[in-house]
Structure to design on (274 residues):
């Protein structure tokens, strides 16, 4: 499954890595070897080596449009054999806590919906056709081979503990971080309303949400490029409502993305420079 027809025999195609924030990407770059950088318009393409695996790492910026545009640039320019996304998410279940890691079996654009006259929301599903035109792909499945390899990479691995009390209420009973497997929801929305989070989880089976994964997956699907997303949880609104004014509290740069970057590095070691 990890093949791309644009490969040459002389040089293995790179694996593309797309993340939203510089602080997330840095957790990966701390463990890779830089080769060179190229600037193309708004995009800074970082050519890196993770062992013998060639990478092109791109910070796309926050949000669905940034994620789609950055992924399109990466695929059109370099024909990667796969695209991996990692970074932070908010939990969609009460038992998923900051520090936990989610292996994304797929991504759902939960912002692709009708809001009916009654005020109720309607999600059209995978194939949304309106007067013969495709409007959106709302459910996108990660590459099965990459899911399998990521699960194998997580075997015997324990994510680092989450700092005591960070983004959790005082006195909360803490536990060691866990690894979950399931869908990632995406939209240009930060959901804090408990009823709405429960609805998204019940409707889509999402374990968490971000603002990029489904857009990245959508572009990969359109190009036929294998896709994988790995996320680590930075907040759970059921236990502590995030202060969206104080972003330092919500997204501590030293923590967010670090555990998912660790798992991605383990995944890359398994893939090798095929």
């Amino acid at each position: 499954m990890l093949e791309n027809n644009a490969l040459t025999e002389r040089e293995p195609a790179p694996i593309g890595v797309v993340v939203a924030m510089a602080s997330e990407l840095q957790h990966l770059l701390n463990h890779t070897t830089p080769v060179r950088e190229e600037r193309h318009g708004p995009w800074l393409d970082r050519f890196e080596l993770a062992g013998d695996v060639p990478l092109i790492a791109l910070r796309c910026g926050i949000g669905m449009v940034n994620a789609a545009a950055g992924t399109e640039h990466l695929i059109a320019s370099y024909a990667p054999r796969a695209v991996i996304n990692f970074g932070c998410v908010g939990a969609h279940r009460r038992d998923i806590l900051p520090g936990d890691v989610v292996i994304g079996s797929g991504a759902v654009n939960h912002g692709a919906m009708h809001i009916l006259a009654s005020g109720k929301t309607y999600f059209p599903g995978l194939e949304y056709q309106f007067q013969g035109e495709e409007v959106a792909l709302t459910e996108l499945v990660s590459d099965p081979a990459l899911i399998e390899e990521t699960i194998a990479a997580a075997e015997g691995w324990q994510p680092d503990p989450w700092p005591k009390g960070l983004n959790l209420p005082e006195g909360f009973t803490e536990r060691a971080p866990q690894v979950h497997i399931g869908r990632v929801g995406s939209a240009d929305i930060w959901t804090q309303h408990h009823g709405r989070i429960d609805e998204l989880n019940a409707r889509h089976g999402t374990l968490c949400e971000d603002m990029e994964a489904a857009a990245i997956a959508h572009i990969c699907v359109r190009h036929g490029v294998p896709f994988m997303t790995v996320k680590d949880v930075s907040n759970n609104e059921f236990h502590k409502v995030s202060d969206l004014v104080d972003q330092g509290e919500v997204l501590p740069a030293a923590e967010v993305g670090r555990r998912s970057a660790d798992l991605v590095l383990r995944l890359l070691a398994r893939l090798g420079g095929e």
